[in-house]
Every structure is written in C-alpha cells, then in structure tokens.
Amino acid sequence: MGIKIENSSKRESTTRIEMQIEKIFKSAPKEHIRGIEKIRLVDSILDQRLRTQPTSTLPGLYHPRQGTQSAWIEISLEALLPSSKSIFKRILPQLTFKNNLAAVIFSLIGQHYYLTLRHSVKRTNLESSVRSYTEKNLRNWSEQQNTMRSRLLKPFQPSLEKWSRSLRRYYLKQQKKVS
Predict the structure, then answer these.
(1) What's the per-residue H, E or C state across the chain?
(2) Global confidence as pTM
(3) Domain 4-145 maps to which CATH number in 3.40.30.10, 3.40.390.30, 3.90.1300.10, 3.20.20.140?
(4) Can you list the residues of the chain whose pLDDT is less than 70?
(5) Model confidence pLDDT, tens digit, residues 65-76
C-alpha cells in the first residue's frame, strides 16, 4: 500500500485500527486515492483553521495539497472511540467502530476526489456529491465485508430503499410545515 499510516495517538492498541484502514483503502478505487500521501491517527484534531467549530467531535479532516506537501488525512480516534465517557456511552461506538471508520475514510476520500481530480463539480454541490460518493462506496464496502448478510438482504434492498425515500420525503414535508 502506498499510503503511510502515522500513529500520533497515545492509545496502545492501534494495530487493529491500522489493519481496518488498510482493508478499507483496498476497497476504494485506486484512481481516487492517487495523491494522498498519509493518514495520521490522532487523539483529537487540533487545527487553527477551525476556530469556529469544536474540533473535539470532528472525526476526520482532509488536508489538501499545499505547495510541495501532498494531501493527507487526519482521523480522530477520540471522536470515533471515546474513552473519557461512561461505559454505557462507549459501548455503541465500539460496536459500530468499523462502519464509522469506513464512513469517515470514504467521505475524506470523496472530498479529495472532488476537490483535486474532478474539476467539474462546483463548490456549492460539493457536499451532496461527497455524501452520495460516501453512500455508494460504503454500500459496496459493506457488501464485500458481510457476504452472508448481504446475500440474505439483497432481495429486500429495493423495498427498503423505497421505504427510506418515502420516509425522507415525509420528514422534509414535516420540516417545511414547522418552519
């Protein structure tokens, strides 16, 4: 794999996380990853550019290419696996860690792809493009990971997606009525 994984975190067991990251990057399209130099695992993201947003809950940050420095990705382990909260608030993030990590990585790869490799997307459409890119790649990745479950649920997938779209439309109608 051409992408280095730097561990700047103070956590002990990050080898499992690094293996998960490598698996996720293997399932991503190679041409979309081109130009990303490294992934840095940190406890929390500290960036001077993000003064207005709280960075403690930010799970990942894409750093575009600047001058001679290549593009790189920063992932916060504290946002994905909180260690300072009670045991009950740590259980769910531990159960969904693999999927959350994949979603963060695919969204950051999507940002890289649409900012550097696809110049036809305008900045106003960037968020929706990255969201659809993440959903598409996350769906492909989950089908690769969970073969038995995906084979069982494949016949029901169109019905579930149709139900999801109708619930989304209903929710948007309710939001319009409120405002």
Answers:
(1) CCCEEEECCCCCCCHHHHHHHHHHHHHCCHHHHCCEEEEEEECCCCCCCCCCCCHHHCCEEEECCECCECEEEEEEHHHHCCCCCCHHHHHHHHHCHHHHHHHHHHHHHHHHHHHHHCCCCCHHHHHHHHHHHHHHHHHHHHHHHCHHHHHHHHHHHHHHHHHHHHHHHHHHHHHHHHC
(2) 0.80
(3) 3.40.390.30
(4) 1, 48-56
(5) 888 888 999 999
